[in-house]
Fold:
Amino acid sequence: MVEISAAMVMELRKISGQGMMDCKKALQETDGDVQQAMALLRKKGLATLAKRAGRDTSEGLVVYKSTDNGKTAVMATLCCETDFVAKSDDFVATAQALVDFALACPADEGVENVLETTVDGKKFSDLLTETVSKTGEKTEVGDCAKYKLDGPGLISTYVHFNDKVGTMIQIETNDDATASAKAIKQTASDIAMHVTATKPLALDKDQIDPETVEQEKAIFAEQAKGKPENIIEKIVEGKMNKYYAENCLLQQAFVKDDSKSVEQVLANAAKEAGGQAKIRRFVRFEVG
Structure:
């Protein structure tokens, strides 16, 4: 049997991040082969993950990153079981690595694609397994989105101070000068914060699920039951307009100036910048 030296244990501990005893046992079981011992520790991580598969992952972090030129950006959530683990160095490092892998991922969407992406010779799924082994908690990618500019515009992000809720928004402009204007950049950031606070269901009413629209109309019609048909129609129309104003981003009253809609605020900023701008899309992610 190979003698397991303290140096071998320290080497494996440095690579794996596991405890001294776990590293020593893994080396003993693999006759001192560091790579096999690392694989064994990873397998134990998989076992931990399987054992905790039914656990609720209601804690975690919202993370984001963009390329240096700002043309591509990603936002994602990494989830775990407890706030204690969510604040640990290992979990935070994995969360930050997640957006690196998401940026490197050849596909623009799909969590499974990010899990299979390789950076510096390692798949993110393997990194996730190692994190589970270190923390002992179920850990999984909750959401992930990647935005790419295909013309003039900008991508703006906002993450709340608790790192548990955030928004990414893509704005199209008529030219690069408008996109780089201070007024547009500030307004884009403000709108991202607005989305984080107000939770809009869609960009505009055309993006709301038709089934949801019909359900709301039926509820409003039932509330007005007993009134003349033409009055019911007007009541339903009025309530639906209010519903759209509350739930559609472009029609929502802007949180920093409720005398204007989000659409009006962006139009004013674009005018100040000497161009035009419109919101193409947004995502809002929240942990828990």
In short: The longest helix spans residues 229-247. The longest strand covers residues 277-286. The beta strands are 59-66, 72-80, 118-119, 122-123, 140-148, 153-159, 165-173, 253-254, 257-261, 277-286. The two ends are 49 Å apart (CA to CA).
